[in-house]
Specification:
Layout: E1 2-13, E2 16-27, E3 31-35, H1 42-50, E4 57-62, E5 75-78, H2 90-99, H3 105-118, H4 134-146, E6 152-156, H5 164-179, E7 183-188, H6 191-197, E8 200-205, E9 208-214, H7 215-219, E10 225-230, E11 246-248, E12 251-255, H8 261-270, E13 275-281, H9 285-293, H10 295-300
Parallel strand pairs: 3-7, 3-8, 5-6, 6-7
Antiparallel strand pairs: 1-2, 1-4, 8-9, 10-12, 10-13, 11-12
Helix pairs in contact: 2-3, 2-4, 4-5
Length: 307
């Protein structure tokens, strides 16, 4: 059951190829992330999926329709370029966005009040957009994106410019929608957001898909990391440590050998290593991203490896 399927999407702007053969398969009811640096082709891909622009070649199917615009009433879209009328009250701005999707304005206002109350934001209802902070206005626009109860929500860099508190509110709202069976697609250049939220991701670099699949599948491309501290500095146990091991302070850090933890642990004990600490760490999405897309792409995203 796919909510969105794209096959070999290509988009050329004059002599520039912005998207070069992107294929995606987004299961229904998942939180799906398009992850990559600015300029990778994420926004262009989303706009082709939504039917805002047509591909130069390739096909797409959205909510069972070959023409994405036919599915528009069942889609909520938050573009990268935000836009609300500054003089409108928050409830009216949300209701207006619903009206653009065919929702009667009176019903939109009723739903807007309910949504604001549900998210603990009832005090915002009669406040004009111009009096809200950027983060508050962004939450209001997101509520307007879901006011008509869409089956598919598409968010383009939804966390840009939000402080930590509003990021948390937005993440919880996304999770709530997904728990209700809604499919959520969002683009981001921040690996941590994708790692916290996404079940599946597509890593996009230079207009191409470098990886498409589950987050744990991306991580499984790398072996677990061992962090070891011993009382003894040398001994027969050292033969069990890969030659690629590196020192980080008092710890030895290396990939878990093919045999797994049991042979390693036996060699350390039998060899008199004197284990002080031994931790096996699962690789994070950052490490997987670097392995898949390359360190230069990670640097282009301004991503530093978490400490």
């Amino acid at each position: 059951m796919l909510a969105v399927e794209a096959v070999d999407l290509v988009k050329d702007f004059n002599e520039t190829r912005a998207v070069d053969g992107v294929s995606l398969a987004v299961p229904t009811g998942t939180i799906y992330g398009l992850l990559g640096p600015n300029g990778a082709g994420k926004t262009t891909t989303l706009r082709m999926l939504l039917g805002i622009i047509d591909p130069s070649s390739g096909t797409r199917c959205v909510l069972g329709r070959d023409r994405p615009l036919d599915a528009a009433p069942e889609i909520g879209y938050l573009p990268e370029e935000r836009g609300l009328y500054p003089a409108m009250h928050a409830r009216d701005a949300i209701a207006f966005m619903g009206a653009l999707r065919g929702l009667p304005i009176a019903e939109g206002r009723r739903r807007a009040d309910a949504l604001l109350d549900e998210h603990g934001l009832g005090d915002w209802s009669k406040k004009s957009i111009r009096t809200l902070s950027k983060g508050m206005a962004q939450i209001v626009q997101l509520l307007g994106t879901i006011i008509h109860k869409p089956r598919l929500i598409v968010l383009d860099e939804p966390f840009a410019g939000l402080d930590a508190i509003n990021q948390g509110k937005l993440e919880e709202l996304i999770r709530r929608e997904a728990r209700g069976g809604v499919t959520v697609i969002f683009s981001t250049h921040v690996i941590a957001h994708a790692e916290r939220l996404c079940e599946e991701i597509a890593i996009i670099a230079k207009g191409k898909v470098a990886f498409d699949g589950r987050v744990d599948e991306a991580r499984s491309r790398l072996r677990p990391i061992v962090r070891l501290r011993t009382r003894a500095s040398d001994g027969p146990w050292r033969s069990a440590i890969p030659a690629t091991a590196r020192r980080e302070g008092h710890d030895l850090v290396f990939e878990l050998p093919e045999g797994g933890p049991e042979p390693l642990l036996k060699a350390l004990i039998d060899g008199g290593a004197g284990i002080e600490t031994l931790a096996i760490e699962r690789p994070g999405l950052h490490d997987a991203f670097v392995a898949i897309a390359g360190a230069r792409t990670a640097e282009a995203m301004g991503q530093e490896k978490p400490q």
